[in-house]
C-alpha cells in the first residue's frame, strides 16, 4: 500500500471533495495543512510539487496529482474496492465527468472569483454579476438533480462529493433558498447523513461561511 499525503486547507471546498473521497474509500492518509493566507502555496518547495500553487495536492509515493477532480478519480480508480463511486462503464463515466467539469468551471469559479480577491487583495465589494453567476450554477444543479437522488442518477459518485463540497460553501455568498431550490436542499441534506460528511466537509463549511458573514457588500 502506497503512502498517501494530501496537502490541503481546512476551509477549501476542493480539499473537502478529496477528504470525502478518501474517507468513503476508507483510505489511510497523512494530511498536511498549507497556510494559503501566509502564502505557503508559493514557497519554492510547494511550487516544485504543484506549479499551479493550489490545494488540494495529492502525493502518492512521489506521484503528484493536483486538482480535486483528478485526485478523486485517481483515488477510486487505484484504490476503490469497486467502481461504484466512479463507474468504468463508458456512458456512466461520461456523465460523472460532465458533472466534474461543471463543478470545476460553473460552480467553483464564481466562488474563487469572490474569495480570491477577498483573501489576497482585501476586496470586500462584490459586483452583482458575480452573484448572478452563482445563481446560474444553482439553477443548472437544480435541473440536473431533477427526480434523481444524486447528480448523475440514483448512485452516489465522486461528482456528488465535488459538486456538494462547492455548493455547500456557496451560501457564504448566496443562500440556497429551499423553496427555489428544493432538489439541491434535499440532496445536500441526503449527503450530510454520510458518516464522514461532518468531519470531511461540514466543519470546514461552517468556518468558511462564518468568515464571510457580514464581510462583503454587493454592488
Ligand atoms: N480546480 C481546482 C481548484 C483549486 C483551487 O483553486 N484551490 C484554492 C483553494 S480553494 C487554492 O489553492 N488557491 C490558492 C492559489 O490559487 O494560489 C481543484 O479542484 O482542485
From TrEMBL:
Source domain of life: Eukaryota
GO MF term (any one): glutathione transferase activity
InterPro entries: Glutathione-S-Trfase_C-like, Glutathione-S-Trfase_C_sf, Glutathione_S-Trfase, Glutathione_S-Trfase_N, GST_C, Thioredoxin-like_sf
Domain GST N-terminal stretches: 2-83
Residues of the GST C-terminal domain: 89-209
GO terms (BP aspect): glutathione metabolic process
PANTHER family attached to this UniProt entry: FI01423P-RELATED, GLUTATHIONE S TRANSFERASE D10, ISOFORM A-RELATED
Sequence similarity: Belongs to the GST superfamily.
Oligomeric form and interacting partners: Homodimer.
Protein name: Glutathione S-transferase 1-like
Species in which this protein is naturally found: Drosophila albomicans (Fruit fly)
Lineage: Eukaryota, Metazoa, Ecdysozoa, Arthropoda, Hexapoda
